């Protein structure tokens, strides 16, 4: 078969085009800093990258859930601490009221302070975070305690609010007001009534009720603390996993700059050499195109 000038030109152009495409691909890897910019660059690598990106996004969502749960529990603990301080003050007042030497005005002053403490506890129990009531159970849009009743009545439910902190792993984040706060309100109300009557036996009985409510409150706080510790440990584990996932993703996705620059220089040298060789080998004339 006779090799024509046109065939030589076509072959040269095809080879130059392939070489230029390789140069372009390496240049894109350098400028984008990504080894794989489209699935055709490396089908197996692209699948690995997608899997690692999905894993990274999932871990980030779990970390966000942990942070939200931690914020909720921190606020819960602060509220319970405030209620606990009010309860301690109520107990101090009741102990004072048990003194037979107190005058009626003194007992009335104690009753008034107990009333104010009851109101403070109920208000704290109605604390909301981001438009959701902390102590209402699953009825987060309903104010937990009705302040128009004496003592305030609980309007929430006993439902648990949970956050997913890992694949298939959930953690309850709430404490319901009927368990932790309502007994406190009832105990303070009983103490107020006993002080109002000046009944020494009833006042002593109310001390026991206050102590029982305090025990329930402390148990709720201990549970909150245990959940916070678990969240902290989970967050550390997730962050470690995220770091490892990002490292693997970088290895699979990011360009090895030193290697890419070396390849680009090699491809560029090859391309220039091909151009020079082609220019020498092919010197077309009008007669060559007419053949």
From TrEMBL:
Pfam families: Flagellin_C, Flagellin_N. GO terms for cellular component: bacterial-type flagellum hook. The keyword Transmembrane does not apply. GO terms for molecular function: structural molecule activity. The keyword Transcription does not apply. Residues 9-140 form the Flagellin N-terminal domain. InterPro entries: Flagell_FlgL, Flagellin, Flagellin_C, Flagellin_N. Keywords: Bacterial flagellum, Cell projection, Cilium, Flagellum. It is found in: Bacterial flagellum. GO terms for biological process: bacterial-type flagellum-dependent cell motility. The lineage of its organism: Bacteria, Pseudomonadati, Thermomicrobiota, Thermomicrobia, Thermomicrobiales. Residues 208-283 form the Flagellin C-terminal domain. This is Flagellar hook-associated protein FlgL. Its main location: other. It comes from Thermalbibacter longus. Belongs to the bacterial flagellin family.
